[in-house]
Design brief:
The complex is a heterodimer of chains A (167) and B (384). Chain A is mainly beta. Chain A contains two helices and eleven strands. The longest helix of chain A is centred in the N-terminal third of the chain and has 12 residues. In chain B, helix 7 crosses helix 13. The chains are: A mainly beta (167), B alpha/beta (384).
Chain lengths: 167, 384
Amino acid sequence: MSEKIKSWPGTPLGEKEIKEKRILVTEWQPNLKYAWDTGAGYGRDFAELKKGKIVGTKCNKCRRTLLPARLFCEWCFRTADEWVYLKDTGTVNTFSVAYTGTAAERLKVPRIPALIEIDGSGGVAIMHLISDVDPWKVKIGMKVKAVWKPKQKREGAITDIDYWKPI
Amino acid sequence: MQRRVAIIGVGYTPFRPITPDMSFKEMMFEAAQKAYEDAGVCPRKDIDAFVTCEEDFTHGRSIFNIHTPDNIGAVMKRIHTLPAESLYGLADAFMLINTGLVDVMAVESHSKASNMLTPDYLVAHAMDPVYNKPLGYNPYFIAGMEMNRYLHDSGVTREQCALVSVKNRANALLNPDAAYGDRIAMDDVLESETMFWPLNRLDMSSPADGGIVMVVACEEKARDLCDKPVWVRGVGWCSDAPSLETREWGEAVYARLAGEMAYRVAGVTNPRIEVDFAEVDDTFTYKELQHLEALKLCAPGQAGFMVEEGATQREGAFPVNVSGGSLGVGRLDEATGLQKVLEVVLQLRGEAGPRQLEDVSVGLAQSWRGVPANSGAVAILSNE
């Protein structure tokens, strides 16, 4: 409402009307389940993460390392040439301090998603989280290292790296 | 002046019930690489624009189109995704090339149907949420009701429908890329479990995985790049009323109108004489017969007799679904229409191997969007 508009025409509707089913209410829970094939690229990538290693592939034409590990280079549109093991240390390329969760709720402890350029890889980056640090101390260019989950808790997933922390 | 448009390259992965050995990205890459090799083009230099055809819910990702460019060489290039049946993608390429903005395009679609674990619920999710969903049934009842009305109106029998299943599964035995080739008898179909009466289990196609890519070009590029261009002489598409209450149940109106458009664009005045063979939608057995009638590929009411007399067999006067169709190849979600086009292209090039038809120059491909949709597209292809 504003100075000029004191009331809207029509019948107001709120949570009460919906709960009392004074309007048509229908509920539907979609049952949509998927089981995605990892394929050879992601498949080996995840298998190596379980072993505590980060693996990528390399295109010898554009000389880029590809991560997630994939079987073909998206720039050159050709089959990747080799698998390469990568270090688990890197440099923060960019990051954000996320105070809002998926349900738009406020987070007391913010999450810090970051793009981390892997050392010695020629610039390839991994998308992950930074933690165990004062959010306001994180800087672009900061050196970080992967904190792995204990071996018995790894399941062949990107979360086998718990988070990255400043060195 | 309308530009002539040709398919100058095709690539595909084998159609299988499951494909655990490859991700959808690897599947798209394999099909694309084969298509570009076939056309003799480099996607990074020679292809002006790309269209992919996939539905978010089928693949389990919102905004699925963001995941497609890298797999087909379209990064940093023009690409769009249709959440639609893939024959619409070919129509899109036909139109875009006709604008003069692009000369060479790639059309892609793939199925990872095996990755969708609750397919009947997915289809249920497509129903009207306040009017139809609350009644709470498996939505494939629509096919049963449609078949019932079609048989009632046309005089086609369940036995004649069963023969479609027998024919198409047998055809698939000659197609090494088909997933469901089989030698069955009419009684096997009639005695298989009732799913949605009068529809039995063997009246229904089963899902399969597979990827298809096609390179489409204007006449100048086609003649420059390709020895055996297959011309897209006409395309058409149409949607009937979506609501179950007001749509037509006996006749496939969408197919009739899409066909009329495609014939008009292609300059076909007498389809039964001018078209040599067809790959039409056969998601369910009765659909093949209903579509043949709608597309005027047989006299009204004669589709049942055609299959009974063997006219639509591979050796018959008017072969239908020589590839095996969806009943024999498998239902490929959005990629189904491109599989129909693929078979017509292979036949017109003389590359269909043991199932090659003799003396064919004009073929028709037709698709239907599937339950609960009431829409579809048609393409008329020719090697002349």
